[in-house]
Design brief:
This protein is α/β, with parallel strands linked by helices. The chain is built from nine helices and seven strands, in the order ααβαβαβαβαβαααββ. Bound molecules: S-adenosylmethionine.
Length: 238
């Protein structure tokens, strides 16, 4: 089987939108929470790891004046997102850039990403970085936001105890069953990946560790507006 980049998840990009909704409970609700935490008057939004553009589309709909700079290191995912953005008629307000956000965290001057963003958003992507790189990225995001900017991220977090890991796993199995499938069947469509750029397979940190990293990066307020078993939306205000 051909290799995919960490985070692309499915061997065929066209399986992503349906497959991720079977693999993860309440995916749409989780993304909606991010869109609600970003002020609808936002003009400039940075999205990290846009994938097939599901969060992008929800965000563009919610913020009618916003322009989104979306980065992803996978040309397959960016192209898929671009087609959907064009189909929805949002192409004037979206630009996709092929960038490894780990590389951007370390060498921002190599890229023309811009600054003074009203918001930075991300879903299911940053957990592919090591904790050291997560910290570097949070520092870079903090620097890239306007003074009243915000950052919201949805990611799986490390279960707080082995007994909870079992609880979270069962919740995902039951969710897949409710969707008329099994986790095993969904996982059969998942591709194989090894380290690419700054990302590797899941490198989860606890929610507490994430919040500490955000405070260390300088965020004045950190918060967790949503949590469902092991999935979390967290972030902060600059
Ligand atoms: C699971 S997908 C999530 C996509 C989308 N945000 C969503 O919620 O549907 C994760 C995305 O992050 C991208 N990604 C992972 N690590 C990355 C990195 N270091 N730089 C840029 N993109 C990355 C992958 O290519 C993939 O498109």
């Amino acid at each position: 089987m051909s290799q995919i980049y960490p985070g692309e998840v499915f061997a065929n990009t066209s399986d992503f939108d349906a497959g991720i909704r079977q693999l993860l409970p309440r995916y749409d609700e989780m993304l909606e929470v991010i869109t609600r935490c970003v002020p609808s008057t936002s003009k400039k939004i940075l999205e990290l790891g846009c994938g097939t553009g599901e969060l992008t589309l929800k965000m563009l709909k919610r913020c009618p004046d916003a322009e989104i700079i979306a980065v992803d290191y996978s040309p397959r995912m960016i192209n898929f997102a671009r087609e959907k953005v064009e189909l929805a008629g949002y192409q004037q307000r979206w630009s996709g850039k092929e960038v490894d956000f780990g590389e951007w965290a370390i060498h921002p001057d190599k890229f023309r990403i811009g600054a003074n963003f009203d918001a930075c958003i991300s879903s299911l992507a940053i957990h592919h970085l090591t904790d050291e790189m997560k910290q570097n990225l949070f520092i870079r995001i903090h620097e890239t936001l306007s003074t009243d900017g915000c950052f919201w991220n949805a990611d799986p977090t490390l279960p707080e105890a082995p007994v909870l890991a079992e609880v979270y796993k069962l919740a995902r199995e039951e969710w897949a069953t409710q969707q008329g499938t099994t986790l095993g069947d969904v996982r059969a469509r998942v591709g194989t990946s090894s380290t690419y750029g700054y990302s590797s397979q899941d490198q989860l940190a606890t929610l507490e560790a994430h919040l500490q990293m955000l405070m260390q990066a300088g965020f004045s307020t950190v918060a967790v507006p949503w949590k469902y078993y092991g999935l979390t939306v967290f972030g902060g205000l600059r």
